[in-house]
Amino acid sequence: MAAKDSIAVLTGDLVNSGTLGPERIARAFRALEACAEMQAGWTGAPLHFTRHRGDGWQVVLTNPQTALRSALAFRAALRAEGEEFDSYVAIAEGPAPDRLLPDLNAHTEDVFVRSGQGLDDLKKTRSPLRMAHETPGPVDAAVILADRLSQGWTEPQAQAILPMLDPDFTGTQNDIARRLGKSRQAVAKALQAAGWDVLDLALAALEKGPRQ
To answer: Which domains does the chain show, CATH number per domain?
Structure first.
């Protein structure tokens, strides 16, 4: 299992930010920040959402096992705003610093550096990947497959799947439909097309099973 004093650092960068323009970039960052606040409610700990290196961002998770769920939530929050929005996400894990600072740009510990380097590697390669975990193995394999599946999310699919990613969600598809102003059938169809059934199983396996 992951050590109790381990953290995961997610470093992201908006995809094709040069074509979005200032207004849509601001909209994307509002969505990312709101998602970080929402996830803090899931975990009981702040993610210290920090704008990082221009159009980049960074968060920290005190439970590394939820890193893929977190990355998918950020992607869903962006896609829920429109299919032109997406982000690279690089995940690194390592020892927690003695104290987490509100501005993650102030951290120079190795796990923060490695997460940033992972983002640089993602953007440099010709690979179609937009999300990756630094450590080769089953966790990275799950991230790669989830990335491929979620890259195709449409705006309605992202809107439907975002509340489902809350590990404490006890509502129904009817509740989501009412919130979105859609029919239950439309929500069910969106979740099925988004691959929620298999993602839910994969996330449960990662978060409850032993870490390699």
So the answer is: 6-98+112-208 (3.30.70.270)
